[in-house]
Design a protein that fits this description.
alpha/beta; 42% helix; 270 residues; Rossmann fold
Length: 270
């Protein structure tokens, strides 16, 4: 009996390994699939869910404390491909490291399923992905037919940074019945003031941390028709739009409400 119980405990531990997460988005995914108790450390800027804020922070996007991570004896370390150079010391120390893509909309769901497989939460991950897709479909049905406002997303103002068609944010714009105005192919890129003035987007979307609100009265922003028409929308919680995690539908709902206010009001009355 004791041997059998011990064997069962060892199998459970192997199937549900402890995890160090190197990105806030991955931490959100892990908690959303029910693997929160397995997460033993996370990264800087991890602020959701509240339980995750109590975890030790052992990394940022550009650095990590390899010695501290190794001392935690994690079963798996998860990050993103851009952190490949950072995790080289961990791999040399024999740690299992998995780098999961997160640039595109499809990557978001693939990551959830991969995390489910890594943590012994396949069923929960599949259920979460299905629930998220169903909610997205409901939101897309609420988008009114008609014009697709050309929308410029501001990630930074000095210099100007925006999103390209390869980003998951651009996909959210399309789902929200808008067109990404930047015309850039890569996921994220610098953008010139001259190109912005020539393009004259129908609407501008930014987060509070972008600094846009403080420069709307200055060039090139004050020469944009969208600014003069009050078609500038600044999101308080950037994470629901810019973090490829399980709260993305909140960002999508916000985009739809901002870019199609009349259609949203009609849908609410039905």
């Amino acid at each position: 009996m004791l041997v059998s119980a011990l064997a069962g405990a060892l199998l459970f531990a192997a199937a549900t390994p402890t995890v160090v997460s190197l990105m806030p988005s991955l931490t959100e995914d892990l908690f959303a699939i029910g693997a929160g108790a397995q997460v033993i450390a996370s990264s800087q800027f991890t602020d959701y869910p509240p339980a995750a804020t109590k975890l030790p922070q052992v990394a940022s996007f550009a650095s990590l404390d390899a010695e501290r991570i190794v001392a935690l004896h994690p079963g798996i370390v998860v990050g993103i491909p851009a952190q490949a150079a950072l995790v080289s010391d961990l791999r040399r120390a024999g740690e299992r490291v998995e780098l999961l893509k997160g640039d595109s909309f499809d990557d978001l769901f693939a990551t959830i399923r991969q995390l489910g497989a890594l943590t012994g939460r396949r069923r929960e991950a599949a259920a979460l992905a299905e629930h998220l897709r169903a909610r997205t479909a409901d939101l897309v049905r609420s988008v009114p037919a008609g014009a697709r406002p050309r929308t410029f997303v501001v990630l930074g103002v000095a210099p100007i940074f925006t999103v390209g068609d390869g980003s998951y944010i651009a996909h959210l714009l399309a789902l929200a019945g808008a067109a990404n105005a930047s015309g850039v192919r890569e996921p994220y890129a610098r953008y010139s003031a001259e190109a912005l003035l020539a393009m004259q987007p129908d609407a501008i979307v930014a987060d509070r941390q972008s600094g846009l609100a403080a420069v709307l009265d200055r060039p090139p922003w004050n020469a944009l028709r969208a600014v003069r028409a009050g078609r500038v929308f600044i999101l308080g919680d950037a994470d629901i739009l810019e973090r490829p995690g399980p709260r993305y539908n909140e960002g999508l709902a916000w985009l739809i409400a901002c870019l199609h206010p009349r259609g949203t009001a009609r849908a609410a009355r039905r």
